[in-house]
Structures are given as C-alpha cells and as structure tokens.
Amino acid sequence: MNALVKPLNITLLAGGISRERDVSLASGAQIAAALRSRGHTVFESDIGPDNLSALDHRPSDLVFPALHGTFGEDGQLQEILEARGIAYVGSGPAASKLAMDKVAAKSVLAEKSIPTPNWQVVSSGKYKDSWTPRSGIGYPCVIKPIADGSSVACRICTDITQARAALAEFLPQYGAMLVERFISGPELTVGILDGRALPIIHIRPVVAFYDYQAKYTREDTEYLFDIALPAAVLEKVARLALETYQCIGARHLARVDIMVDQATMEPMVLELNTLPGFTSHSLLPKAAARAGISFEDLCEQLAAMAIRDRPTAPAGVKAETNR
C-alpha cells in the first residue's frame, strides 16, 4: 500500500479502562511519534464509555485506537465509530467482540476445523472444591480469563491443587475462567497486515511462560525469525493464522498466537488479537520490520486502510469527516 499523499488529522486513542492501560499508553506514544514524523497532526486522548469527548475533536480524518481489552478492543468502541460514520483503524464490531471472547472464538475455530487446545469454562456459580478438569485437558493446564489479554491473571497449573487454587483466586473477580489444555512446544506468533501473513516469530522467554513481565518489561525474551521447525510446519502455521483471521472476520491488522505440539508437530491456535501492541517489545511491528516495513510505514499504512474502509453512516446521520 502506498504512503498517504497528504497530511492527515488523526485522533489517537490510548489508555482506556482495561487492565492493559499501561500497555495502551505505551503503544499510543509510539504510534503518535511515528505519525508525527511523517507530517501528520495527531491529537492524543484517553477515552472510556463515560467520556467520549475525544470523538468530538475537530478536525479529524480518522481514529487510530491504540487500545486493548474492555471497551477499546471488544467491539463497544467500534460500534460507536460505525454509528457515527467515523473512519478508524482495526476490525469492526462483530470481529472485535468475537476475538475478545476466547470461548466464542475457540468455538468458531472448532466449527471451522481449525485446531485449538481442548478447553472448558468454569463459572463461580458452579465451581466446587471437588472440581477436576474435563477429559482431554489434563495437566499441566492453563487457567486464564475469558476476555483479558497480556497474560493478565493467567496461570499454568501442574496439578489439581494449583488449578483449584487459581480458580479460587480468580473466580470471585472474573465470574468465569477458561481452563485449557497446556501445549508443550514452541510458541509462535503470526502478524497479519491487510490479509497478508508477516514473518513468523518464535517467542522464547527465559521464564516458565510468556507472562506480562516477559512481554513488556524483561529484556531477555528472545524473538527469533530463524525457526528450527520443518518448512511444512511453518507453512501450516501461516495458513492457520490466515484462516483464523478470515473466520473471525478481522481486518487491517491482527496477531494470531499459535503453539506447536512438540510431540506431534501439530500447530494449535490459541487466540487472535485484533489490536496488538505497538510498544518497543511488541510483535507485529517486529514482524513488519522483518518484512521491510518500518514502524512509520506500518502506522501510515494502517491509517490509509482506515480511510479506504471508512464506514457508511446510518441514514439520517452525517458522517463525521469534516476537516
């Protein structure tokens, strides 16, 4: 995609109300600096369901959400932008909502025969001290929130004692948790840019698993492009990532996280993120750079996609595009 031919006025949204607020703020700062370096005017603002004043800023050609989690990434903001006819970066409301709900997304993957680890949902109302994981999950197992990211409140449990302790800790806060079969093997991620798979990254943390600190604060996590896996496996990983992107209905950008079972060499899709991070540690920008797309070019390309795919305002509502 060609660079934008004229400077734009861009409203960049960062912060938000989710537990990933700090990551969002860091992503927003990086994106704003990149867009300004290309001559665009960037208005940075926080946003939340009770404060939509950022969307009234004029002039503005498009909204660039650098948000994660609740309200920013779960379809709520996207519904508001669609209703106002505002151009914006990222997936639409339906895909955003689906991808954010790990249970709903995994159900769609299973329906489309896209491999994903066995799972079950445990709710606080039905949880008992005698709980055991469903057949096909076993140990280790992964316990994580249904609609949170950045490995927030994620635990790998090696036995029933640890699993019950994790559920007892998090169920009062979340109401329900996803319990998933643990896949032992290489952890890969595939960035998708406008329907094209970017180079695959092998994530190799020094710690036991790729937790919040390994993602954003530690400097010893390795991100490898020269991956010691058969070419056929890597080709399948890329294909499954694109199939996941398509069946979720994502657009513009996404990141698909995949584990390769070291015993069978079968890739298993964990989840898709519709608004992946843009921090100095973030993976989609690293993959884009490997493909020859600078951070500044990446941000400009996404802005151009938003202009290209501007929503049509409902009848009787004037699209908010005046400069």
Helix content: 25-40%
Low-confidence stretches: none
**Count of discrete domains:** 3
Main β-sheet: number of strands, strand sense, barrel status?
A: 6 strands, antiparallel
CATH topology of the largest domain: D-amino Acid Aminotransferase, Chain A, domain 1
Number of helices: 9
Q: What class would the helix/strand composition place it in?
A: alpha+beta
Kindly estimate the percentage of residues that lie in beta strands according to DSSP: 15-25%
* CATH class categorisation of the largest domain: Alpha Beta
Q: How does this model look, in words?
A:
With 323 residues, the protein is α+β, with helices and mostly antiparallel strands. The protein has three domains: 9-90 and 297-308, Rossmann fold (3-Layer(aba) Sandwich); 98-115 and 184-292, D-amino Acid Aminotransferase, Chain A, domain 1 (2-Layer Sandwich), CATH 3.30.470.20; 119-181, ATP-grasp fold, A domain (Dna Ligase, domain 1), CATH 3.30.1490.20. Helix content is 32%, strand content 20%. It is built from nine helices and 13 strands. It has helices at residues 21-37, 76-84, 93-100, 102-111, 160-174, 212-216, 231-248, 283-290, 295-308; strands at 9-13, 41-45, 62-65, 119-123, 141-145, 155-157, 176-181, 187-193, 196-197, 201-204, 222-224, 253-260, 267-273. The strands form three sheets. Strands 8, 9, 10, 11, 12 and 13 form a six-stranded antiparallel β-sheet that branches. The chain has a four-stranded antiparallel β-sheet with strand order 4-7-5-6, with helices on one face. A three-stranded parallel β-sheet has the order 2-1-3, covered by helices on one side. Helix 1 (21-37) crosses helix 9. The relative contact order is 0.18.
